Amino acid sequence: KSWTQTLNNKFWNNSRSGYDYVRHDADPLIVRMRMIHDAATPSTNGTMLTVLTRLGLITGESEHGVRGEALLASLADEINRNFIACGELLKRLEYFAKIRETLAKHE
User: What distance in Å separates the CA atoms of residue 6 and residue 3, rounded to the nearest whole number?
Assistant: First the structure.
């Protein structure tokens, strides 16, 4: 939980949502990339979607699910443009959706 809070504080982009590739207090950059496409490793934002989903389930704190929703909403256009390169994110989207559906049935 504390590691996720560190990522939220240092890498979360408040204006566009999603996790940037470089922390906010790093040297000034012209562009701060948000990784959603898989490369040799899974995308950061795809991995964080699972972390947020599981953390919300374990702790019962809704703020993690809200951040996960914001993450997905901010990346929806890019997923639509190039879904082939977003395998990890799509897999995590399915996991997120199944958990939400399960929780909705139990409310």
Answer: 5
Rg (CA), the chain: 14
What pLDDT, on the 0 to 100 scale, is given for residue 4?
Answer: 93
Task: List beta partners, residue 19.
Answer: 12
Beta bridge partners of 12: 19
Report the pLDDT averaged over residues 88-100: 86
C-alpha span between 19 and 78 (Å, rounded): 14
- SS3 category, 25: coil
Q: For residue 20, is pLDDT > 90?
A: no
Give CA separation, 34 vs 11, 70, 75, in Å. Answer: 10, 14, 9
Determine the pLDDT at residue 6: 92
Give me the pLDDT at residue 101, please.
86
Contacts of 56 (CB under 8 A, 6+ apart): 62, 63, 64, 65, 68
